[in-house]
């Protein structure tokens, strides 16, 4: 699952041959597994956090800004698959920071 998600991220920021549809479709599929979209949407911020942790001091503000935009756009695809369904009080994909 992680490898497919990373491949989708590369396609999403690149040619976008399939990733935008795959993400929406997987959100619907996971909803069928009783994983609601607000939980499914947390996976991409978790990937970002892992990349940030790996890069440590090499992580830049530009990377942070780019990831913010990417996750916001992905959240939009997930939200469009589930009109009116978002996490209470927070957009899809918002993950609390861990101390």
Briefly, what is this?
The chain is mainly α and 99 residues long. The chain is built from five helices and no strands. It has one domain (2-81).
Structure, described:
By secondary structure, the protein is mainly α. It has one domain (2-81). 65% of the residues lie in helices and 0% in strands.
Structure summary, number of beta strands: 0
Strand-pairing-aware structural class: mainly alpha
Helix content: 55-70%
Ends distance: 26 Å
What is the residue-averaged pLDDT? 83
Work out the radius of gyration.
13 Å
How many domains in all?
1
What string, H for helix and E for strand, traces the elements in order? HHHHH
How many separate helices? 5
Portion in strands: under 5%
Q: How would you sum up the major sheet?
A: none
Cα shape: globular
Poorly predicted segments = 87-92, 95-99
Topology overview:
Blueprint: H1 2-13, H2 19-32, H3 37-40, H4 43-55, H5 61-81
Keywords, please?
99 residues; mainly alpha; disordered C terminus
């Amino acid at each position: 699952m992680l490898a497919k998600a990373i491949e989708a991220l590369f396609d999403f920021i690149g040619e976008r041959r399939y990733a935008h549809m795959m993400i929406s479709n997987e959100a619907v599929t996971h909803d069928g597994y009783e994983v609601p979209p607000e939980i499914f949407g947390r996976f991409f911020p978790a990937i970002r956090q892992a990349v940030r942790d790996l890069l440590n001091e090499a992580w830049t503000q530009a990377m942070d800004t780019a990831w913010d935009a990417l996750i916001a756009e992905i959240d939009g695809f997930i939200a469009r698959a589930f009109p009116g369904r978002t996490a209470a009080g927070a957009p899809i994909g918002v993950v609390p920071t861990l101390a």
